[in-house]
Amino acid sequence: MAGLRDRLPRLLPALRALLYWALVYGYCGLCAAVQLLKLVRCVVGQGPAQTFRRAAREQPPACLNDPSLGTHCYVSIKDSGLRFHYVAAGERGKPLMLLLHGFPEFWYSWRHQLREFKSEYRVVALDLRGYGETDAPLHQENYKLDCLITDIKDILDSLGYSKCVLIGHDWGGMIAWLIAICYPEMVTKLIVINFPHPNVFTEYILRHPVQMFKSSFYYFFQIPRFPEFMFSINDFKALKHLFTSQSTGIGRKGCRLTTEDLEAYVYVFSQPGALSGPINHYRSIFSCLPLKHHMVSTPTLLLWGENDAFMEVEMAEVTKIYVKNYFRLTILSEASHWLQQDQPDIVNKLIWTFLKEETRRRE
């Protein structure tokens, strides 16, 4: 017994790890089974022809080439060998505002902000690694958080900037938090939309079954190939559903996506191999969290849609303990997960207030 007591402290980390991965892969299997049942029901109910149909989309919708949104640009990163696509608005030489989108989105999710902030900023809406017209490495190890953080640092250097106002939504919010933690000198102001501090997310998802259920796609995405297939059936019905359904889409009082907006999303993600890169972002997440270093020293604004179908609002309130500098949280009632598209006028006003308020505080 004495020997067991001596060994127990050394065994506990291994036991915790075993339980952790058993939970991850057990829930992963459950999510896969649910999706498989959905597929069977779809095939039986609608027939194979309807289930597996895909409309041909050879030309992008006109909205993706709207000159009022900015200029399409590309930058090649020497170290990674990747070419990144972005849309830029505002004059070169103005302070940089860098926008990082979430899933399943791309630069176009920031169309309202590109128009709004170009008067005082060089606004750059990036296609993250693996998304849209940015290069997509094949192997999932190329999508680890370290790679994604390095991408943003390299892009800033390539654009000729040493610092920026950094804004991220959803998965882009996760990356924005990590940049502010790892490279605080690069971020003058941090604005995150509908994503808590990464440590809050990690701890909350393991302790609250409701959040684990809401984040079930994180687990489903661990399976190779099947998630990409499920997104594509019924001519990308699942993708459309995320933005338009009553449960997950933009609310009744929100700025609904137009038919052309929705077609822009489907066009981008219907290109050959276009879903694998975005989903690969999630396939390394469970081995990267929690963080060793986690405090944020940058002035921070956290915006949150109260009706977010994927994130519990309590996580937003807990996030403040990880910010050592000025922190403001604003929760918008009746707003969805897609906040910068759902309530663009309010979001833009809140961002302007935060930017100008911080300037006055420094003065």
UniProtKB/TrEMBL annotation:
| Pfam family name, one | Abhydrolase_1
Annotated InterPro entries: AB_hydrolase_1, AB_hydrolase_fold, Epox_hydrolase-like
Decide whether keyword Transmembrane is in the record: yes
The answer to whether keyword Oxidoreductase applies is no
Alphabetical UniProt keywords: Hydrolase, Membrane, Transmembrane, Transmembrane helix
Which ranges does the record mark as transmembrane? 18-37
Query: Where does the record place the AB hydrolase-1 domain?
Result: 95-340
* MF-aspect GO terms: epoxide hydrolase activity
- State the family named in the UniProt similarity comment for this chain: Belongs to the AB hydrolase superfamily. Epoxide hydrolase family.
Q: What is this protein called?
A: Epoxide hydrolase 4
| This protein's encoding gene | Ephx4
